[in-house]
Design brief:
The complex is a heterotrimer of chains A (285), B (503) and C (337).
Chain A (H helix, E strand, L loop, with lengths): L25 E5 L5 E6 L3 H20 L2 H17 L1 H12 L3 H21 L3 H5 L1 E2 L6 E9 L2 E5 L6 H14 L3 E5 L6 H11 L8 E4 L3 H10 L5 E3 L8 H9 L4 E3 L10 H5 L2 E9 L4
Chain B lengths: L1 H16 L15 E2 L1 E3 L2 E3 L6 E4 L6 E5 L4 H17 L6 H17 L1 H12 L3 H22 L13 E2 L2 E5 L5 H14 L3 E5 L6 H12 L7 E3 L4 H8 L6 E5 L2 H10 L6 E5 L5 E4 L5 H13 L11 E5 L3 H12 L20 H16 L3 E4 L14 E4 L6 H4 L6 E7 L2 H9 L6 E5 L3 H10 L4 E4 L18 E2 L4 H6 L2 E2 L15
Parallel strand pairs in B: 1-5, 7-8, 7-10, 8-9, 10-11, 12-13, 12-17, 13-16, 15-16, 17-18
Antiparallel strand pairs in B: 2-3, 4-5, 6-20, 11-19, 14-15
Chain C lengths: L12 H7 L5 H9 L6 H11 L6 H13 L1 E4 L7 H12 L13 E5 L3 H8 L12 E6 L9 H13 L4 E5 L2 H5 L3 H14 L9 E5 L2 H4 L2 H13 L4 E3 L11 H18 L4 E3 L7 H14 L12 E3 L2 H14 L12
Classes of the chains: A alpha/beta (285), B alpha/beta (503), C alpha/beta (337).
């Protein structure tokens, strides 16, 4: 006699909590062959708005933490992900119809991406910053700082977990907070990841995950005045030029659509930073 | 002693009047008419020529060609040809040598450039002579050295140039902004089509002559003069790979929209409403100088001007009194006079805007004080003005005036100062005045602005990155960071980016 | 925590008015430490900016004459003799024998023992305590180091005043200042000021030399300036001329700012004397501009501003000749003193 399983309710992840969509809407997540897997929350513009508010509230805390501290928190995500490796493999096999080895590779790559990015948190400033030899009696130092709140459309074509990690991890390294719209058809690993985040010392609101229709939510994020950066990595199938135009209203930093999953790179960290240059007079007398 | 006294009182006023010490315009050899500089030659524009005037006298200086779309096409084509056939094939070392040549030629013709700049722009000669033009030369020197060292620019090995750069620059620092744009673009291996501002094309024309003297391969730098539509045609030209703009946030926003989806790399250096924060332990005399330099340098036509003075409430009255006393010693007048502190407003349109916003400030209840300056009869002038009792919601506390107008607000604690300083959609620059190092560093950390000056203000250097947060734009000019605006990394696994996209 | 022993400082009207009658080392220290700091880079930039002003040709003639009228023509050598001092006095009275319209200098400045010779050589041109004529200034208080006991400093001063010195240029005890004993410095100035009193109850003018080159920092210069004024100095003076750097434009600007602030606070006008290192008319004009823009042109009078100099005078005379004749002059056309 087989045991009756207890399925999980997949909800949104906003401000460190797991609310349902305020709209009450859900959509059916299925295997590629159409078998029912779960009812995911279909996030609305108001959920997006709440997520931005939560992300903004988390900026000071997360960006104010030391790089060493942020690095440990990001590494902690890798640790917890490693511990729940099997769960993610199963989820990916179900939602993406992957072989076990392909799903395992994706999970392992995602874990390793967290580790790689974790190590940057207390180093990227040294690589992207500069002491500037100005012609005058001044101390002059340029350092990158997080841009603030980054709205992201996660990669949509494949690799739902790795795609998500590849866009949120680099934004988090410097201290940005994110609002991310997960893979529309395979959102389950994203919500499971948020359970990892919730238990891994990532402050509530630093990562906010919305499931649902990127086409519906992205325009609200692109035009939101309290969003500083827009990552259109997974927006290739959307009207992404319009999103970029909407983002220009408040001169958001925009990164365009990417084919596949972005490889780990320091450029993805630095693109969500602002270089601040501080001058101070310098004199012995 | 009595006689001495008499002599002093009889002579005293004339002594402080100083001399009208105008810089001789004899160093200038201006033409009556300037064409566009395309493919190494001056050619006539196909649009209706316009006249550039001296804002200090409203007298005509020269007639300037107006580039229409066909001219912009020709300029971009020349830049493309030069990129494909010459410039991208040249070694970094040789590109560097051309830039070194340009730097030297700028130094050699420094006085001429300074006089032309002050004549055309209205800025005091002591600024064009001591700040603008020396920095222009410094900018070319700095980036000249980078041309053969791009592997060390922080973008991985063998970074690639972008192609043709379309550059549109403002009228407040005409030649300096030209240098900020052209030097890094050329060092990185790009070719350039640049459009100077409509009211200040003169120094760019002399610069074109310098390029001829430097024997820069033709087409590497093309200069198209004209108004907003010329700039628009240039920015939107399908064959440019890079757009760099310095100017208002409004135009920057329009550019960001128009290039969306084109794959053009963009840097924008836009407006600001910088807070200049004065704590009660500030070195007070230097702070006063810094406030003056912060907002009255270049008639306040500075995107990073310290236009919002945030002064700790317990020293508000003292600071304002000292400021008024100091402003009363500023000399407004002939930009070519070496003793002039405040020159002319660049244009009638700008003067109208400054007047309008100042009137709004008054209408909104702020208290207006204007230095007692004799206003010349002709030309565009606005005496140094400060507003006290300014509320944070007042338009003069939120909008960029781009003129010699200072709004004074108060704060009580460092936290309040930071909150007020950051309470703006802009984020270009800020100033901090305090004798307490640890407080300065902590406040600098919290300010959301790209350039922070502590116990100084309005300092620029080619080695120091400059650029804003938020609606003040993106990208950096100056320093190693300034190169990144004109390069694409090749060596690192750059993610494949879709161009074009759905629309 | 040890509480510093309160020292009852000598009474000085200005300090008592400003700080209170319970004047102690502690209260003095607190007062001085409450002064605004100085940012060196900004100060030097402001001074450099003032140095770029150019004045009218007509103003230039006036400026050159003004510089002469503000000069303390100085000789302070171990080798000074009555003959040397007589020569100096002659130059003071008739700076340019070729042009009788050339003004006379403000004072001759000599060591205390040379005062009688200076007074004698000046003869009827000597002001002798009046408002007209050339003053005799004497350096005192173990000039230039100031390293002797207070009684000796007082005696040094009294002797010079008794010999006819119209002005006393004293040095502060830099050692005491740098070790934070502001009370000692204060008391000495007060005592020397008292020693400047003549038998008829009038005072010789007291210039207080800070020796800014030894104080080293601008913050110290500001404190020492303020301290010297509080203690009763009529003038604050940069340097002895024996220590490098002597007078600089930034240091003078800073001292003028103190004088300006004192005037705003009390209405009282204090003099400033840059001394040492000012050799050219061009440099001296920069000082005039700095005075005019910082405290106002009113200060360009001998009782409020002086140049302590020796070689400056001849350069001014050369420039003056150029203005008069229209061609450049040479060193053989001015006299050595």
């Amino acid at each position: 006699m087989t045991r009756l399983t207890v399925p999980k309710t997949y909800k949104l992840y906003i401000g460190g909590k797991f609310p349902r969509s305020e709209s009450g809407r859900t959509y059916e997540v299925t295997t590629k062959k159409g078998a029912f897997l779960a009812n995911a929350s279909l996030a609305s513009r108001k959920d997006a708005r709440d997520a931005v508010v939560a992300a903004r509230a988390a900026v000071n805390g997360w960006s104010g933490a030391t790089g060493y501290n942020r690095g440990q928190v990001l590494y902690r995500i890798a640790e917890l992900l490693e511990g729940r490796r099997e769960q993610f493999v199963d989820e990916l096999m179900a939602t993406e119809s992957l072989s076990k080895s392909a799903a395992t590779t994706q999970v392992d790559t995602a874990i390793d991406a967290w580790v790689w990015y974790a190590g940057w948190a207390d180093k990227y400033v040294q690589v992207a910053g500069n002491g500037n030899p100005v012609s005058g009696p001044y101390f002059n130092l340029s350092t990158p700082e997080p841009s603030g709140v980054i709205a992201i459309v996660a990669p949509q074509d494949s690799s739902s977990l790795l795609g998500l990690v590849s866009v949120i991890a680099p934004a988090l390294v410097s201290g940005n907070t994110v609002v991310v719209v997960a893979h529309q058809n395979a959102p389950l690993s994203a919500i499971s990841l948020s359970e990892v985040l919730a238990t891994s010392d990532v402050p509530g609101g630093a990562v906010n995950i919305l499931t649902g229709s990127p086409a519906e939510i992205a325009p609200w994020l692109a035009s939101h005045a309290d969003v500083n950066g827009l990552d259109l990595a997974g927006a290739e199938q959307l009207e992404w030029v319009d999103l970029q135009i909407a983002a220009a209203d408040t001169l958001k930093r925009v990164s365009g659509p990417v084919v596949g999953v972005p490889a780990p790179s320091i450029e993805r960290i630095v693109q969500w930073t602002e270089t601040k240059t501080v001058w101070h007079t310098k004199s012995l007398i | 002693m009595t006689e001495n006294d008499k002599a002093v009182s009889a002579k005293a006023p004339s002594f402080l009047d100083y001399a009208p010490a105008p810089e001789s315009t004899s160093v200038l050899h201006l033409k009556k008419h300037y064409g566009l500089f395309i493919d190494g030659e001056f050619v006539d524009g196909r649009g209706d020529a316009f006249t550039t005037i001296s804002p200090a006298t409203e007298k005509e200086i020269a007639s300037i060609s107006n580039a229409n779309n066909a001219d912009v096409d020709a300029a971009v084509a020349a830049a493309r040809k030069a990129y494909d056939r010459t410039w991208s094939k040249l070694s970094g070392a040789d590109r560097g040598k051309y830039l070194f040549r340009i730097a030297r030629l700028v130094q050699e013709r420094a006085r001429e450039l300074a006089v032309a700049e002050s004549l055309d722009n209205g800025k005091p000669i002591k600024e064009s002579r001591d700040v603008d033009v020396p920095l222009v030369a410094a900018w070319f020197f700095y980036y000249a050295g980078w041309a053969d060292k791009l592997d060390y620019a922080g973008l991985g090995p063998n970074p690639q140039s972008l192609g043709v750069a379309a550059q549109v620059i403002p009228w407040n620092f005409p030649l300096l902004m030209l240098a900020w744009k052209i030097a890094p673009a050329l060092a990185a291996g790009n070719t350039v089509v640049i459009k100077p501002a409509e009211t200040t094309p003169l120094s760019a024309m002399i610069f074109a002559e310098i390029l001829q003297q430097a024997d820069l391969p033709k087409g590497v730098v093309n200069i198209v003069t004209g108004a907003g539509d010329t700039g628009q045609a240039l920015v939107n030209h399908p064959d440019v790979n890079k757009v760099a703009f310095t100017g208002s946030t409004g135009v920057g926003r329009a550019i960001a929209k128009s290039v969306a989806g084109t794959g053009k790399k963009v840097t924008l250096e836009l407006g600001g409403k910088a807070a200049n924060i004065v704590f009660d332990d500030a070195p007070i005399d230097q702070a006063i100088e810094g406030i003056v330099n912060g907002i009255f340098f270049n008639q306040g036509h500075v995107c990073c001007a310290g236009s919002r003075l945030l002064v700790q409430e317990n020293i508000h009255d003292e600071v304002v009194d000292r400021l008024k006393a100091r402003l009363s010693t500023l000399r407004m007048g002939d930009p070519l006079d070496k003793n002039t502190d405040i020159g002319a407003i660049n244009s009638k349109a700008q003067l109208d805007r400054i007047r309008e916003l100042s009137n709004v400030g008054e209408a909104e209840g702020a208290e207006r004080w204007t230095a007692d300056c004799a206003i010349p009869e002709n030309g565009f002038w606005f005496a140094p003005t400060i507003f006290t009792n300014v509320s944070t919601s007042s338009r003069i506390a939120r909008e960029e005036v781009f003129g010699p107008v200072l709004s004074v607000l108060t704060f009580r604690t460092p936290a309040e100062a930071i909150a007020k300083a950051n309470n703006t959609p802009y984020g270009l620059s800020a100033g901090i005045w305090s004798d307490k190092g640890s407080r300065i560093l902590a406040v600098a950390d919290k300010l959301r602005a790209g350039v922070i000056w502590a116990n100084t203000f309005n300092r620029f250097d080619p080695a120091s990155p400059f650029g804003g947060y938020k609606e003040s734009g993106y990208g950096r000019e100056g320093g190693r960071h300034g190169l990144a605006a004109y390069l694409e990394s090749a060596g690192w696994a750059a993610p494949a980016v879709t161009k074009g996209g759905k629309k | 925590m040890t509480i510093e022993k309160a020292i009852a400082l000598a009474p000085a009207e200005r300090a008592v008015n400003l700080i209170g009658s319970d004047l102690t080392e502690k209260s003095l220290k607190l007062h001085l430490e409450g002064l605004s700091g100085v940012d060196a880079v900004g100060l030097e930039q402001r001074a450099a900016g003032l140095g770029t002003r150019s004045i009218k040709t007509t103003s230039k003639a006036w400026a050159l004459d003004t510089i002469i009228k503000l000069i303390d023509l100085t000789t302070l050598e171990g080798a000074d003799t009555p003959g040397k001092v007589r020569s100096l006095a002659a130059k003071a009275m008739l700076p340019d024998p070729a042009d009788a319209l050339t003004p006379q200098v403000a004072a001759v400045c000599v060591y205390g023992d040379m005062v009688p010779y200076a007074a004698d050589a000046l003869g009827s041109a000597w002001s002798n305590g009046s408002d007209n004529g050339i003053n005799v200034a004497a350096v005192a208080t173990a000039f230039p180091s100031g390293r002797s006991s207070l009684p000796i400093k007082i005696m040094d001063t009294k002797e010079a005043v008794a010999n006819g010195a119209d002005e006393i240029d004293m040095v502060i005890d830099r050692g005491a200042f740098l070790s934070g004993k502001y009370g000692v410095v204060f008391d000495q100035i007060v005592a020397v000021k008292e020693a400047c009193r003549r038998e008829n109850g009038t005072y010789a003018h007291l210039k207080v030399i800070l020796e800014t080159g030894e104080l080293n920092t601008y913050d110290n210069v500001r404190k020492a300036s303020w301290l010297s004024i509080l203690a009763g100095g009529d003038f604050i003076k940069t340097s002895t001329g024996k220590v490098s750097p002597a007078a600089t434009l930034p240091v003078t600007l800073l001292m003028l700012e103190v004088v300006r602030d004192w005037h705003l606070l009390t209405g009282e006008k204090i003099g400033v004397k840059p001394a040492g290192g000012i050799r050219s008319s061009k440099d001296a004009i920069k000082y005039l501009v700095t005075v005019a823009e910082t405290v106002g042109e009113e200060w360009l009078q001998p009782h409020l501003f002086r140049f302590g100099a020796s070689s400056l005078l001849n350069d001014v005379l050369l420039q003056r000749q150029k203005l008069t004749t229209g061609h450049y002059s040479g060193p053989d056309y001015v006299t050595i003193d």
